[in-house]
Amino acid sequence: MDARSKIVERLRTHRTVNMLLDLAPSRKMLYRYLSNLRDEGRALVVGRTRGANGRPQDVWLNRKDKADNIEHNLTVSRLVDAFGMPFLAGPEVDQHLLPDAEIGQLCVEVDLGSMDGNCMEAKFIRYVDAERPVIVVTTTEERVKTLLERGSLLEGWLLCTTLAEALKKGQAKNWKNTVYALDKVLTKYGSIHEGSTP
Questions:
Q1: For the domain bounded by 69-198, which CATH number is listed?
Q2: Which of 1, 101, 112, 136 has the smallest count of CB within 10 Å of its CB?
């Protein structure tokens, strides 16, 4: 796969130029690729964010999208990169559940603390009949506890962690093992509950 195709593939989720630098020999060449892809309609600027240095940065995607929730969408991108596994995002995900991403059988939700508990609980209700595990990655341990309480209706299908823990160096192997184990159990038994029958 050539560099331009790799860029379009990576732009399935929101990205800044800094998140694409490994796909081009130089920043200048990356901007040239992005410019050409934009001219072809295969890459679009969908919003802006502030970089670590405080300067505005364009946020790129390979399709049109709303400009709201840019930070949320960039967090989803960082997360799926950290997991280092094939994933679905955007229009590729289950359109009934609408998770932020899907990795194998695992539905991924990102909570940056802006959604109140009632809204998050309403989101969890969509997962009740789906019998698919959900991981919610959020901001603080306190928020993790709140979400686990609000998500009690998922009866064992809900996992929660902080963003710092999920992005911790070396954590990707743990996520791969977790997703692999969940997929194996769901494929064999159709459920992760103890005592499930095939």
A1: 3.40.50
A2: 1
Average pLDDT of span 56-61:
96
Alpha helix positions (H), the chain:
3-10, 27-39, 70-83, 117-125, 141-150, 163-166, 172-189
Domain coordinates in residue numbering, the chain: 1-67, 69-198
Instruction: Check pLDDT > 90 for residue 185.
Output: no
Distance CA 50, CA 40 (A): 27
CB 141 within 8 A of CB 162: yes
pLDDT recorded at residue 188: 56
pLDDT at 195 over 50: no
pLDDT band at 180 (very low <50, low <70, confident <90, very high): low
How far apart are the C-alpha atoms of 103 and 88, rounded to whole Å?
A: 7
* Degrees to nearest 5, angle at CA 95 with 191 and 87: 70
